[in-house]
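Look over this record as teaching material.
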Amino acid sequence: PELASIYGSDVLPGSNKATLILADGSKIELDNNTEGIEVKDKNIVYNNGAVVAENKAVSTALLQVPNGGIYRLTLSDGTKVVLNSGSSLTYPLHFSDSVRLVNLKGEGYFEVSPDKTKPFRVQSSGQTLTVLGTHFNIQSYEGEPIETTLLEGKVSLNSVGINGNTILAPGQQAIKRNNKYQVKQVNAMDATAWAKNLFVFNNIPLSQIFKNIERWYDVDIIFSPALTN
């Protein structure tokens, strides 16, 4: 039989789409015509100022981006986050006095507002990243190695099962495999190209390239295992 597709002859690329889940369990499907939200004056608002959710004594929120999506978030301290397809971020509407802590699943690009009195920490798959103010990218999809890439500043990585901290300098990437960190020099802009709606694949295995394409276009790609590497 002739195959039919809801897309016609093309698969659509990713777009601005996400779901906001508040601590009280309420779900809000975010407007596709805006590219992000921010925490402002104890409310969550769109970039254009329209209110998404008023303060209902909600302390935390969860931003979920599906496959085929991308979304931007500005936290209460001014830190900017871009979430890639198939990712989520749990964050407080207001940070405590001692630390700024968020939890990431999937991939996120962070531009952290400097604050020497409040370290910024990102928890992801058993890894904790600590910074004071910097630009970095974390890729921590389930079942894949955690890749942390630093563009600016300095970060400290701490992980369950690994003794001591791993410190990254700008242009370095740490890959966590089998409870070990491999640190190498990379072009950090390659790791964050997705946040600018670009694919940049430089010496990347075909299997990893397909995973990126699958998430962005929300499709499954079937290929011979002989082509994996």
About this structure: The two ends are 34 Å apart (CA to CA). Residues 95 and 181 are 30 Å apart (CA to CA). The mean pLDDT is 91. DSSP finds two helices and 19 strands in the chain.
